[in-house]
Amino acid sequence: MGSVRTSIIGRPRPLPGPTRRTAPYTLICDEPVILSCAWHEEFWTAVATSAWGYGVSLWLSFRNTTTMREDLQAIVVWLGVYALPWVVGLALRNTQFVERRRIAARAEAQRREIAAELHDNVTHELALITMTAEATRIDPTIDKDDALVDIAAMSRRSSAYVRHMVSLMRAGIASPPLSFSTEIRNGLARLADAGFSVEPEIGDGVDSISPAMSSALGHIAHEAFNNILRHGSPDGLCRVTARADSSGLRATFTNATTTAYHGDDLGITGMRDLAEGLGGTLDTRLSDGRWTVRVSIPDAMVEGSAS
Question: CA torsion sign, 109 to 110 to 115 to 120?
């Protein structure tokens, strides 16, 4: 074995047995360790391993080189050998980081959607239950049996909706999309059933907007009608307008109210986020006892036009 001639870089020279065992160990074991450490952000370990392996490899190479050119060649070659696991490890780390951000963004979007859904539906039903119970307690002319029937019905709807949301969350399915025109019609019917006087002005163009935009606007309309039912006064006139044409979409919801304004709540914030997500705006105003929500979406988001 002593007569075997071995070389790492440079001219062949006889190497002692321990040196022949050290070189393969450096080549085989260091690179996976460096790659793994760079991948899992254990940078100090990767740096120490790289420095140790690079130094040992150069030392072994310099023992077998005889010219400056061979020394420079060894430096460059070993630099590439130890840079490669860094490049691969950092690339894997970046891929993992991007995937984590994508998952986090999806989870955040689902969290916001669930919060909005619960606020738009369950919170509204609970508010109606509270209002019905308080009115029944204060007003002796209200039939208590009828009030209890209404409360039970609203409680069942809330319970069913929560079960539905939980089943969607377990299955990883998003809530079904809404339709702006459908929510407008349903909202007007809800106001009429609650005793509000309504003056609607709905253009034909609201049926021609894109499905994605219609779903977002449907959530806005649903929350706007919930706010009217929760905070509005049936004694005043409600005005609901919606028009979509080549210049864009504009919708307003106006109602009388005696409720003081103390800043945007979760519902208003969610409505504004949806409008801004479509590239539009949502403005609110309380003036002379009338509350107005105004939505404006640019023409680029509208498909088709109203004649």
Answer: positive
The full set of domains in the chain, from first to last, is 5-101 (no CATH), 178-307 (3.30.565.10)
Tokens at 176, concatenated? 């079904």
199 three-state secondary structure: strand
pLDDT of residue 156: 80
Helices 68-117 & 17-39, crossing angle to 10 degrees? 30
Helix (H) or strand (E) holding 161: helix 144-171
CA distance 89 to 85: 6
Provide the pLDDT for residue 16: 43
CA distances to 34, 54, 65, 115, 152 from 48, in Å: 9, 10, 26, 48, 69
Average pLDDT, the chain: 76
Residues of the chain with pLDDT under 50: 1-28, 300, 304-307
Give which of 292, 298, 267, 9 is closest to 127, Cα–Cα.
Answer: 267
Q: In whole angstroms, give the CA distance from residue 159 to residue 215.
A: 24
For residue 254, with 0-12 CB atoms within 10 Å meaning exposed, 13-18 middle and 19 or more buried, which class applies?
buried
What is the three-state SS of 5-61?
Answer: EECCCCCCEECCHHHHHHHHHHHHHHHHHHHHHHHCCCHHHHHHHHHHHHHHHHHHH
**Residue 171, CB-side half-sphere exposure with 13 Å CA sphere:** 9
Predicted pLDDT at 4: 39
Q: Which residues of 158-185 are buried (b: 16+ CB within 10 A; e: fewer)?
A: beebeeebeebeeeeeebeebbbbebbe
The confidence score (pLDDT) of residue 39 equals 62
